[in-house]
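User: I'm putting together a small comparison set for a docking exercise, and I want a reference complex before I start. The sequence is below, and the ligand is D-malate. Could you produce the 3D structure with the ligand included, as structure tokens?
Assistant: Of course. I'll restate your input first, then give the structure tokens for the complex.
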Amino acid sequence: MAQVNIDGINLAFDDTGSGRPVILLHGYPFNRTLWDDQVSALKDHFRVITPDLRGFGESDTSEEPTTIARMAQDVARLMDALDIQRSTIGGLSMGGYVVLSFYKQFAERVDALVLADTRPQPDTEEGKQLRLKQREQILRYGMAETAHAMLPKLLTPENISTRPDLVKRIHDMIMGTKPAGAAAALMAMASREDQTELLPKIAVPTLIVVGREDPLTPVGDSQLMHERIADSRLVVLEDAAHVSNFEQAKSFNGLLRSFVAKLK
Ligand code: MLT
């Protein structure tokens, strides 16, 4: 693990392999190890950079409220520190929100996008209220209830009953998340911008992947992104819910590897 200091916040990241850079951003409430399978699969051909977004994993949590736009600025600062001008940038769910914000702010630094189990729309009013409730509960009681409530939305029922390894990895990641960091990210997600208008402006190759049974960012959201992003490919993975890169790691890795290998 390496670290970079961004205005007083230490951001932890792994930088593995060499060659064309690929930056992968985790979802909520996870950390950079969400991408372990992808790092293993890509590292012999590419340079894979996986940060812990601020508030998560081994990165610091900022005192002041954070935003999705700020998380994207952190990624740009990390690229500066690593002397990377342009990169492929991918993210799952909240990571995808950060990817879209990154493109909006720094399009010239992106050569391709990967949008996994994510969506461009902001929260509904009801969604925002749920975030506030979840935030209060996390700050009061910690992450256990969130882990319990989220699990059936993250993995398919089949994977929950037959893949104890996946259940444990997800559970451990959520329980390892700092309540203050999760609380800050909930506020950031609740106040995130609508990126629907950005989609037709995306002018780089884009791979969109979603689990067929994703209840949090359903297939329709990915279809919308595919319809509006000109140079995009949509792949719906069977037998996967929200963390499709975990549940169908082999297929996900194959897609990612061939997508990046074909980039000019
Ligand atoms: C995630 O996986 O990052 C979250 O489910 C996204 C969200 O809550 O909107």
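The CA atoms of residues 148 and 235 lie 29 Å apart. The mean pLDDT is 97.
User: Thanks, that's exactly what I needed.
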